[in-house]
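ok so dumb question maybe but i'm new to this and my supervisor (M.) told me to 'just get the structure for dTTP/UTP pyrophosphatase' and walked off. so i did the thing. is this what she meant?? sequence i used:
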Amino acid sequence: MSTYNVTKLPIVLASASPRRLQLLEQIGIAPQTVIATDIDEAPVKQELPRVYVQRLANAKAVAAQQIEGTVPFILAADTIAAAGRRILNKTSERQVAKKHLNLLSGRRHRVYTSVILMNTQTGKISSRQVCSMVQFSRLSEKQLEHYLDSEEWKDKAGSYAIQGIAASFIQAVSGSYSNIVGLPLFETAQLLRGHGLIL
Ligand SMILES: Cc1cn([C@H]2C[C@H](O)[C@@H](COP(=O)(O)OP(=O)(O)OP(=O)(O)O)O2)c(=O)[nH]c1=O
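this is what came out, is it supposed to look like this??
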């Protein structure tokens, strides 16, 4: 990707995700600093997916503010996949990933991202939540095991990455594609525009 026209903004990207950094670069933006936060990601009992994802994005912004509160803005995001009320979070365990993919196989599910822009001086938060639908084809046991061997699913919400091999299982997407990869670009740009950070 060309780095021509990438503008450095006075924001901290509160994310260890290399995808989020790349997605920002795609729209010509580079954060001043990147901070990985370490928050408790355990869902509260009966917590709805859209409530959970918002809570985590908020927690990442607050955690980043405690580490670096001098840069004017913090951008944080959280992405999850949801099959009905069930939250399919990232995992590094093959057995859990297999369960997730069996749930998604042959069905439609939702992917939510909550994006937060925090003003570190006032503590004021602006946010957007985006939901996309993803239709998976039916996976055979062989396809599933082969995909698990790739390890591309590790640390991805829903245990797949649409930007990788899993694209060959995805029949249709409705809504924002960048949302599924971890940062809905249109809505993120809207937040940044709302604070006069970009045109
Ligand atoms: C569904 C899906 C998720 N993902 C990724 C986006 C997110 O990075 C990740 C979900 O985990 P997140 O907790 O949202 O993010 P992260 O752990 O990568 O980074 P951090 O917590 O530091 O912000 O899954 C893909 O890359 N492709 C996909 O198709």
